[in-house]
Amino acid sequence: MATKKKDYTLSLGSFSISVENILATFLMIDLAYIAIVSRNIADLDVYKPLYDSGSSLMEPGYVFLSKHALSFGIDFFLYRTIMLIICYALMWWCLKKINIGINICLSLYAIYPFTIDVIQYRNLIALSIVFCATVVLFDDKKFSTIRFVLIVLCASLVHRSAVTFLILILAKPGRNQRMRRKVLVFIFSFALLFSALMKITPGVTQVLIRMLMSIDSERTVAYTKLSINWGFLLYWTMELLYLFSALINRKQYLKVEKCQEQNRNLAEFIYRLNICCSCLLPLLMINITFYRLYSNISIWNYMQLPLLLYSDKGNKRTIGIFVFCVAFALNVMQNMAYNTDYLYFPIFA
Fold first, then answer.
1. Which of 133, 171, 164, 165 shows the shortest CA–CA distance to 150?
2. How far is 349 from 344, CA to CA, in rounded Å?
3. What is the reported pLDDT for 139?
4. Residues whose CB is less than 8 angstroms from the CB of residue 184 and which lie 6 or more positions away in sequence, other chains included
5. So what's the pLDDT on residue 17?
6. At what angle do helices 232-252 and 261-278 cross, to 10 degrees?
7. How far apart are the first and last CA of the chain?
8. Residue 23 contacts residue 103 (beta carbons within 8 Å)
């Protein structure tokens, strides 16, 4: 889709291959290999017994996949390997489909949130499916909205939190922008009111919480348990910095030649994704678990850097790159401070 300024190829007779594709392929294979061989990590003590016993405690989609794999005599680690390969294959297809700074995106992803995805691999399955859904939405072809909704609902069968990505439907290019803005304002206002009530008077929201618990008590408790004071301001800062760099990117491509029109569409789409996600920022006042939404769109945000590098030189581009780097640095430092166990794998021991 997107256009690049330069590409280098290796030629062997009539056969030629892009150097970028070679590097990206090796990087993706390396990430998949590290994910597969990293076994002595958290969460596997939970997933393995559930898989071996054929438990139905997880979401129906995940249970369906695991039970069918178990019926074929596939042990847990082989099943996990197959699922990881499928996940990274989907991510690879999506990145190739968009085709903008693949090596930059994968390198940044390898730093964050790759280490978390390897552990929370059920979330990785949902993430890879949602990534496909957002690519479909970005393509904006026939029935793209319906296809997006169906794919996201499929992802929610593996991990219920994926249903929150339905808000990204408002990022789709098209008309009725005024109506979309009203919907986003309503969502932000509701999230802010709910979060404020949870912080100030938790008892007021108990009725709604009890309704949610009737659907999924365990996850409702996990997401509505007040576990953060003013720490949400760091997460707000990171997301608003990504939003600001996306805004700069958008302005950089407002007036471009026709050959860069696809880059302009991508910059616009990433900006809209961040606008949609920013409407849910108040939920971080309740629990930082909601930050999963933002880490799951990180690959889209990482596309901002190559877009900025490919844009016209000037003060705006410099500021945009600086803001993006600050946001990413805060992201990495926050992850190191909060999730120290996620940074190391047995392969490096």
1. 133
2. 8
3. 87
4. 170, 275, 276, 279
5. 61
6. 160
7. 40
8. yes
Place of tokens 């949609």: 276
Q: Give CA separation, 3 vs 134, 270, 286, 310, in Å.
A: 19, 16, 41, 9
Contact present, 208 and 234 (Cβ < 8 Å): no
Mean pLDDT across 14-18: 55
Q: Cβ(282)–Cβ(192) under 8 Å?
A: yes
Q: Rounded distance, CA 235 to CA 327, Å?
A: 10
Contact 348, 280 (CB under 8 A): no
pLDDT at residue 202, rounded to an integer: 61
**Choice among 157-171, 212-226, 274-288 with the minimum mean pLDDT:** 212-226
Give the whole-angstrom CA distance, residue 300 versus residue 266.
9
Sequence-distant (≥ 6) Cβ neighbours of residue 150 within 8 angstroms = none
Per the rule left: phi > 0, alpha: psi between -120 and 50, beta: everything else, 152 is: alpha
Peptide bond into 282 cis (omega under 30): no
Instruction: Return d(Cα 69, Cα 75) in angstroms, integer.
Output: 8
Residue pLDDT, tens place only, 155-200? 999 998 899 999 999 998 776 788 888 999 999 999 998 888 777 7
More confident residue, 83 or 286: 83
Report H helices in the chain. 19-37, 44-52, 60-71, 76-98, 102-111, 114-119, 121-139, 144-156, 177-200, 206-224, 232-252, 261-278, 292-295, 298-302, 304-310, 315-338
Query: Do the beta carbons of residue 104 and residue 299 sit within 8 Å?
Result: no
Q: CB-based contacts of 192: which residues, under 8 Å, 6+ apart?
A: 282
The backbone torsions φ and ψ at residue 247, rounded to the nearest 5 degrees and listed phi first, read -65, -40
pTM reported for the whole predicted model: 0.87
